[in-house]
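Intended use. Records like the one below are meant for learning the mapping from a protein sequence to its folded structure. Do not use them to infer anything beyond what is encoded.
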Amino acid sequence: MTKRARSFDAAAALYGANRPGYPPALFDAVEELAGRPLAGARVADVGAGTGIATGLLRARGAEVVAVEPGDGMADEFRRANPGIPLVRGDGDRLPLASGAFDLLTYAQAWHWTDPARSVPEARRVLRPGGALALWWNDLDCAVPWIAEQDARIREYLKVIGLPARESLEGLDLTTREVRWSRRIPLDTHLANQASHSAFLLLGEAVTGEFMAAERERLLALFPDGPVEESYVVTLRVARIGV
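Structure written out for the chain above:
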């Protein structure tokens, strides 16, 4: 694991408490593009983190096992999801039996893998006709205040940079976008931003300075109530061995 990926371990509780979940429409799309219902499907959620996606997959009736490499994230996962099996490992070296799964999911996690390794591993553990589903949950920059904040963040973090989303060469992918929103307190919005790896690498003092300035800007926009975060989930699904 890279230093950036390991940064989540020290902030697992912050991550679990403030990161957004996913809308039901996302899982409807996963079922449609994977060609089967989640209920009864054997699913491995890789890079599961604190279990935000894993728990929702379980709620849809999937027989799900989580794969997570980080100590802190695994501890928080077990606290939040005591009934879901968790194994330690990552997408480049899946600790899973060959041909055992109907679906592999990567929620906000594929960019931490090396596709030269993770794609063959996906092919190995999926059953014939199984599917690989990847998604990213991004704030919607079509909303003006979100676009303005995103520009400030990118400028502030330009020394660190943002993680690249690796290509998926050799896979026949179908892409779907799902839009949704959540209304949350301003403190939750700022804590969500602070839980991203680039801010974690900067440390609490430097991150705190940026978030204090953001608080003042957003209080002017939302003086009387919660912040409405608008999201676009980009889902990519490849059916393996069809």
